Amino acid sequence: MCASGKYSSRGPALIPRMKTKHRIYYITLFSVVLLGLIATGMFQFWPHSIESTADWSLDRRSVHDAPLVQLPVSNPIPERGDLSCRMHTCFDVYRCGYNPKNRIKVYIYPLQRFVDEGGVPISSTGLSREYNDLLSAISDSEFYTDDVTRACLFVPSIDVLNQNSLRIRETAQALAMLPRWDKGMNHLLFNMLPGGPPDYNTALDVPRDRALLAGGGFSTWTYRQGYDVSIPVYSPLSADVELPERQPGPRRYFILSSQTAIHREYRAELERLKEENGEALLLLDKCSNLSQGVASARKRCYKGQVFDYPLILQESSFCVVLRGARLGQATLSDVLQAGCVPVILADSYILPFSEVLDWKRASVVIPEEKLPEMYTILKSIPHRQVEEMQRQARWFWDAYFSSMKAIGMTTLQIINDRIYPYAARTYEQWNNPPVVKWSSVNSPLFLPLIPPRSPGFTAVVLTYDRIESLFRVITEISKVPSLAKLLVVWNNQNKSPPEDSLWPKIAAPLKVVRTKENKLSNRFFPYDEIETEAVLAIDDDIIMLTSDELQFGYEYFNYLYTYKMPGDIKNWVDAHMNCEDIAINFLVANITGKAPIKVTPRKKFKCPECTAIDGLSLDQTHMVERSECINKFASVFGTMPLKVVEHRADPVLYKDDFPEKLKSFPNIGSL
């Protein structure tokens, strides 16, 4: 029954009945208003697709339609570039602000055509297909914003991927004209082919002030660690050739070299290796007998035999990647796509995305001078490890190298992780294929013989309340060139650390972590502040070690000690406040099967200002317990993993009668 029927049965209605034409009018008006509110709400709260539809694709916008901007000769030129720039000195993180998604916002400048006063463009190629793909990927991502006031990072529409196509001075002037340039603060430039003849600098030669550089050929001399991003040199074959993924395992060839522009000395050495090892090594070069119309970039030859490239890469276990005129080579991308383990010989080269990627899981890095020993070195790698590296190499390509989009998104994610470190991706997320489940820690087959120098190490100093000794240790450690960060573990719950103004002033970041319990094992906990592969764990009374000795060697086994130490060894150490150094040696020796390289005499390890009250090792029962713990640990391991060794490895020229300036580590104490 309708409402009007109910009212009519009870008597007169309280509200006068509307005329039919008026009722239709108000219903229509209410509907229009309601639809307007709904539409406004949908526009306001619906995810803004307008932010991801910027006209960057050449299919939607022609470069020729972009406005023309003339550069006066008198326009200012940015400074060369500040090599001391770091995120805390040359980047305004406050511009990024807080947002619930912990995601930076990236603004792309509108496309413009810059010309000089004579009408000559600043670039001979304009906007390349690769840079267009990169900008399109950013504009279609969740990082993008078209609101310049919300932007944390600015990406110019000026294509500097290939320095060969640029006019250096004019390009720098165009950058300085950008409305938000502000000496390059919070600006990101992408460059894959830096430098030019004859020197081929390893970073973009365009003056760029404080701008971040995502570069494809950094060396340790030009790379600003924690600021720049090392990116791969994109291979055009990635878009043109689809290589099916091949299962890891033995291949037809053991080593393959496919580069065509190798220095004659390197090629001569490879030919010698070929003579010594026969069919195990395939040495390819450019083809000189191809039919007209055959693309030479897709072919390689050996003594008249023609091979399809990059398909031939899938037929080898290891593929050589040698430096050319530039450190960064597109060959690396082709090799990874083929699932071939790259053997990289490019001294001082900063590998792509090495800030987050563990390259020892997917490649073999050999010093250029060790090229004659390459075959022997590779033969020493276990078959199972080679298969894991083949699998990891292909996954690196799929995830981070396969397209300009992959390269761009990886770059932005690395910068995002720096700005929002509490929401950053973990080591496992960066390095483990999605199908891999880490239920336990495996044997560290991929530990390098010598830790990489560029990332440096974190010094973890365990202390209680010996302030003077602690400060002396901090001062000495701060002299080590490879120190990246110093972490003080404050193990005293009854006393606060000294005020900030009292701590030694050092170049590296210094952080104090206060523990909840006084445990010796706190020194081996994998703290979030530790961002390097290598860690030096040291007490606050080891004041006799020199910076040369510390620089000479360091390793990283904190995770294994904290989470994978067998039995109750860690609990025993915490209960007895003793033997943590023996426990870590048991663990490392058991995993690696190797003995320590050098142990300095006990008489050298003394703390002049320590007394029996504040020194654990000065208690007479301390040494007795150390014998007990060796027996205890051996029973838990089921064997005695410690090795007897009658060998000591000293630094080069350590005991030779040479001038001190010729010695790499002159200040290492003698036995």
Automatic annotation (TrEMBL):
UniProt-annotated location(s): Endoplasmic reticulum membrane
Any one of the GO BP annotations: heparan sulfate proteoglycan biosynthetic process
Name of the protein in its database record: Exostosin glycosyltransferase 2
Major localisation: endoplasmic reticulum
GO cellular component: endoplasmic reticulum membrane
Membrane topology: Single-pass type II membrane protein
SUPFAM superfamilies according to UniProt: Nucleotide-diphospho-sugar transferases
Gene3D superfamilies to which the protein is assigned, alphabetical: Spore Coat Polysaccharide Biosynthesis Protein SpsA, Chain A
Gene coding for it: LOC110506669
Keywords annotated in UniProt: Coiled coil, Disulfide bond, Endoplasmic reticulum, Membrane, Transferase, Transmembrane, Transmembrane helix
Pfam families: Exostosin_GT47, Glyco_transf_64
Regions crossing the membrane: 24-46
Protein family: Belongs to the glycosyltransferase 47 family.
Lineage, highest ranks first: Eukaryota, Metazoa, Chordata, Craniata, Vertebrata
Exostosin GT47 domain mapped to chain residues: 101-381
Residue stretches making up the Glycosyl transferase domain: 555-654
